[in-house]
Amino acid sequence: MTELRNVEADLARFKARVLVVSLAVVFAFLLLASRLAYLQIVRHEDLSEQAESNRTAVVPIVPNRGLIQDRNGIVLATNYSAYTLEITPSKTINLEQTIEELSQVIDIAPRDRRRFKKLMDESKSFESLPIRTRLTDEEVARFAAQRFRFQGVDIKARLFRQYPYGEMASHVIGYIGRINQSEKEAIEDSQDEANYRGTEYIGKLGVEQSFESQLHGTTGVDSVETSAGGRAVRKLASNPSTPGNTVVLSIDIKLQHLIEQMFGERRGALVALDPKTGEVLAFVSKPTFDPNLFVDGIDVESWKALNESIDKPLLNRALRGTYPPGSTYKPFMAMAALQTGKRSATTVINDAGSWMFGGHQFRSHGDHGLGPVDMYTSIVKSSNVYYYSLANELGVDAMHDFMKPLGFGQITGIDIHGELRGLLPSQAWKRNYYKKAEQKKWYAGETISLGIGQGYNSFTMLQLAHATATLANNGIQYRPHLVIATQDAMTRLTSPVVATPPTNLGFDPDHAATVRRAMVGVTQEGTSTRVFAGAPYLSGGKTGTAQAVSIGQKDRYNASKMEEHQRDHALYIAFAPADDPKIALAVIVENAGFGAAHAAPIARRVFDYWLMGQYPTEQDLAAVRMGQAAAPLGKPRLAA
Where does residue 73 rank: exposed (0-12), middle (13-18), buried (19+ CB within 10 A)? Predict the structure, then answer.
């Protein structure tokens, strides 16, 4: 039997379905239309920028780093361009295998591998890291032919820092190295973040660090059109970078070289200043290091050799080495006596070879007495007894209050970072420094050894040279500074650095003249007479010998029975010419013994060069290194 269909019901169901589908289609089109309106109208500006960003890329242009020159225009730090083979670890499938295969194309030494590993530890995996630098044209061509084999490996042209004189003046100049994480965070928190885009290196020590803002320059940008794969197609616009400024130092690199030669393999420091300006003429710390080692990223082996050496070549002894001043402190003690009225220049003290205080015997040189000594003789013959008794009369706080304005135990404010304060003791210092009650108390016996530059006294050679320059300049004190000018890289205009106005310490001219006269006597009839015999100028000075380790009151010093690093230090302070000082210095030769034999000869050759333009012969230099104070000077020659 045939079933009859209800046509009207079927038609109604069909119409209902069409309606639902139509409504769904209309709703879908409404959604599309609203989304289109949202994207085209509401987000038009934002999406337009994104589209343009996808089409273009902004590439930072790292500026050329500024040069560093000495006072005579000799370049101490410069740049050169070279090709570098670099690996981005995150883009390589098997890093070790990649390096092994690369080594078959380009020579990769064990040192290169160690440095690369150290850079990986300090960097992020997506950063491009150099595994070989200074590629030859032949090596570049060899890699270019095999480039398709190495994913994540590329050759880049980079500017490298170069220090033409190697180790010379390395503690002054400093070096550059890759920006580490803490430095990166500091940059991100500063206003210079944009200026360091693309920059991978930054100044680490010395002038490179302290004048980073001058040397770095201004980063530029290139706007380039890119393909869908991110490859640059063409340059759309360019804002060139501005090179860093040239920084001109006050040091004379020839004088610096001379002093470093005279030290030889010995450890020590020398700071020479112009008393009338505060300009640093020489700033020597020995031993030195080669800053070129750090340019590519120093390898582990070289770093270990520098960092673990007993001679501490990375320590800037002129800025951060602190030492007891020994007898070089006596002229300043004499000034304290005169200025405070504790003693006159004619006061006579009997030097019997030792001085008793509180049941303790404080010895003089070799336990031999000098007899009656006045202030002049106390400096010329270096009487310990005179200054033992003077220290007792002054007291620790009076000494502290007089020495502090001279710069002892204070930050001088020199224009490079890292200066140490040293230690100028006082009762207040001891109360604050120690924790136990019995340690906080100042004992009168502790004052005695301060008078001869021992005890708690501990100063840098910069401070000692600074005080010597102030005394030589009649109490007019200039802040030491290494940078005297900057030169604009674009205009070539030189801008002198504005010096800090001097401070007048208020020395009585007669008192200062009395002490300076006695220091001249040191070179004419005192402990450095033989060294300055025949000098065509008159200079003032004071020798010093300072303990490196404490020796008991009942023990006698015997250098031959001590380890080399435990022997006394040799010191000398000086200025010249005596009537119109143009140079003042402080020098220490560590563990060398007597200042007259090992430190004063260095000062003599420095003065010969600076005042007379004379450079010692190789024989003279060897004599200085051997500590032959009485060795006759060879015939001087003009400095090259």
Answer: exposed
| DSSP codes joined into one string, 344-396 | -TT--EEE-SEEEETTEEEE-GGG---EEE-HHHHHHTT-HHHHHHHHHHH-H
CB 627 within 8 A of CB 599: no
- Residues contacting residue 356 through CB under 8 Å, at least 6 positions apart: 362
Given this model, what pLDDT does residue 634 score? 43
Does pTM surpass 0.85? no
Phi, psi of 286 (to 5 degrees): -125, 140
Give Cβ neighbours of residue 414 (< 8 Å, ≥ 6 apart).
Answer: 280, 319, 462, 479, 480, 481, 482
Active site residue 327: yes
CA 294, 298, 304, 310: dihedral to nearest 10 degrees? -10
- 395, exposed or middle or buried, with CB in 10 Å at 0-12, 13-18, 19+? middle
> Would you state the torsion angle of the CA atoms of residues 312, 318, 320, 324, taken in this order, to the nearest 10 degrees?
100
Out of 123, 250, 327, 382, which one is annotated catalytic? 327
Please answer whether residues 147 and 265 qualify as being in contact, where contact means their C-beta atoms are separated by less than 8 angstroms: no
Count other C-beta atoms under 10 Å from residue 75's C-beta.
Answer: 15
Amino acid 23: pLDDT: 84
The 10 Å Cβ neighbour count of residue 198 is 14
Residues of the chain scoring pLDDT < 70: 1-5, 46-59, 122-127, 224-236, 365-367, 548-565, 628-640
| pLDDT score at 95 | 86
* CA nearest to 62, candidates 128, 189, 137, 160: 160
In this structure, the strands spanning 246-249 and 68-69 are parallel
Burial of 199 (0-12, 13-18, 19+ CB in 10 A): middle
Residue 144 has, within 13 A of its CA and on its CB side, a CA count of: 10
Tokens (6 digits) for 359: 């049941």
Residue 287 is predicted with a pLDDT of: 96
Letter for the amino acid at 376?
Answer: Y
352: amino acid identity, one letter: A
**pLDDT at residue number 632:** 43
H-state helical runs in 38-134? 44-55, 95-103, 110-122
Question: For position 101, what pLDDT does the model report?
Answer: 83
Q: Is the separation of the CB atoms in 277 and 501 below 8 Å? A: no
pLDDT for res 164: 96
User: HSE (CB half, 13 Å, CA atoms) of 161?
Assistant: 32
pLDDT digits (tens, 9 = 90+) for 6-57: 777 777 777 788 888 888 888 888 888 888 877 777 777 766 666 555 556 6
| Beta carbons within 10 angstroms of residue 632's beta carbon | 11
